[in-house]
Amino acid sequence: MLYTGICRSDEHAVEGILPEMKFPIIIGHEGVGIVESIGEGVTGIKPGDRVIPLIAPQCGKCTVCKDPRGNRCLTFILNRPKGLMSDGTSRFTCKGKQIYHFLFTSTFTEYTVVEENAVTKIDDGATMDSVCLIGCGFSTGYGSALNTAKVHPGSTCVIFGLGGIGLAVAVGCKIAGATRIIGVDINADKFDKAKAFGVSECMNPKDSDKPIAQVLLELTGGGADYVFECIGNIETMTAALNSVTLLMELQFIVGVSAVQSKLSFDPLIMLSGRTLKSSYFGGWKGKDSVPMLVSDCMAKKFDLEKLVTHRLPLEKINEGFDLLRSGKCIRTVLKL
Ligand code: CND
Ligand code: ZN
Ligand code: ZN
User: How far is the first Cα of the chain from the last one, in angstroms, to the nearest whole number?
Assistant: First the structure.
């Protein structure tokens, strides 16, 4: 591994709120590296290739892989022991004790082991210390706007949560031609950065006595066209659902909430024709899309560098987590 970003999902893993996780585990899932060696029968990559491990692996053969709509390859998620390779083994040990894998990737380490279908070769010329963000945060947010929501020109978008994922949503909304992008965050320190990403107005729910959904309905004259929840909080998911226009529109859940939490709402609000959708890795199929996203980055269609606020060596990983918890960073990139 060369570099890895720290994503809020890694913090969720540390908190133990993700489903079916087993410890001890090597977390981290937003990385880039160089192939050191390959196993028997591997033909798609070779030693020396620059690669991004995939949280959305692609077997190419299952019904989801063959359908242009989905990106959660069944081979990797069905009938498979959590945290292990497909043969049921782990490739990590520490002092003789088995260590589990995370999200098919495990990037907080100098060396990882991934399956051929959970890694993809990228252009050698990419800037390694920021392209790692294509492994999760950037692609997740950007794809949520472009693939899942299919934001249309002239629309009004609301983004709850102005972290790495939320700002990548803003990049997607802007490219799709949204004219109004409203950012919502309880940390006002995020607002300047958000404006640099095309967010036109920022709001702090703490600044108003009214519920945020009501504030947004008033501000948008009846609701936004698209609302993205990029926090992982049940309350903001419900608020987001109540902030979309009654016409026909959509709300997207990008944030990861704690296992066993339940989202509840009055089904009557769906009678307006509202749609509730979710997005995993921005809807991108890993092997097909990641090399293309890297090329788009090299062609300066978007700037990953702007999302990186801090850089640290692996030994200072806990400082990176402190920066995330205290809301002081957008993305910290670790050098491995
Ligand atoms: P990050 O912590 O960088 O950003 C979250 C932002 O939300 C911060 O700016 C907070 O200040 C803000 N916030 C927190 N609580 C509230 C609140 N109640 N009201 C308003 N704002 C609030 O996190 P991130 O951008 O790395 O990740 C965001 C979520 O996306 C998180 O749940 C993560 O697990 C999830 C995610 C999803 C996917 C996917 O494929 N769907 C992939 N990776 C991460
Ligand atoms: Zn598949
Ligand atoms: Zn992530």
Answer: 6
Ligand 1, residue 282: give the atom nearest the CA.
Answer: 40
- Quick one: which of 116, 109, 78 has its CA closest to 93? 109
* Positive or negative torsion for Cα 67, 71, 75, 80: negative
> Which ligand 1 atom is the nearest neighbour of the CA of 29?
43
- Answer whether 251 contacts ligand 1 (Cβ < 6 A): no
**Which residues are annotated as catalytic?**
7, 9, 12, 29, 136
Nearest CA to ligand 1 atom 11: 187
pTM: 0.97
User: In which region does residue 236 sit, left (phi positive, over 0), alpha (psi from -120 to 50) or beta (all else)?
Assistant: alpha
Q: Does residue 141 line the site of ligand 1, with CB under 6 A?
A: no
The beta strand positions in 110-257, using DSSP E, are: 119-121, 156-160, 180-184, 201-203, 226-229, 250-253
**Total H helices, total E strands in the chain:** 11, 14
Q: Tell me the ipTM for this assembly.
A: 0.99
34-76 pLDDT, tens per residue?
A: 999 999 999 999 999 999 999 999 999 999 999 999 999 999 9
SS3 170: helix
